[in-house]
Amino acid sequence: MTFSSEDKFASACDDSTIKVWSISAGRDLPHQQYTSSKMTTCIDFADNDQYMATGHKDGKVRIWDL
After folding, report:
1. What is the rounded distance in angstroms from the CA atom of residue 23 to the CA atom of residue 54?
2. Number of helices and strands in the chain (H, E)
3. CA distance between the termini of the chain
4. 59: pLDDT confidence band, cut at 50, 70 and 90?
5. Helix (H, G, I), strand (E, B) or coil at 24
6. What are the tens digits of pLDDT across the range 16-54?
7. I need a labelling partner for 17 at 20 to 30 A (CA). Which of 3, 48, 55, 63 fits?
């Protein structure tokens, strides 16, 4: 799991999904879900929170437009 500089955090699951949550949404946190072909091993946000970078078991890094 990783936290952004704004109000988001991201979590990666063993089923190759990545969920981006909004902290300011309150109790019922809505999320965006992304699916990758390989399991995610690390996540980080860019300084402006418009992009997310993820590392994967296949050795590739993917950039996601949020």
Report:
1. 20
2. 0, 7
3. 16
4. very high
5. helix
6. 899 988 877 666 666 788 998 889 999 998 877 788 999
7. 48
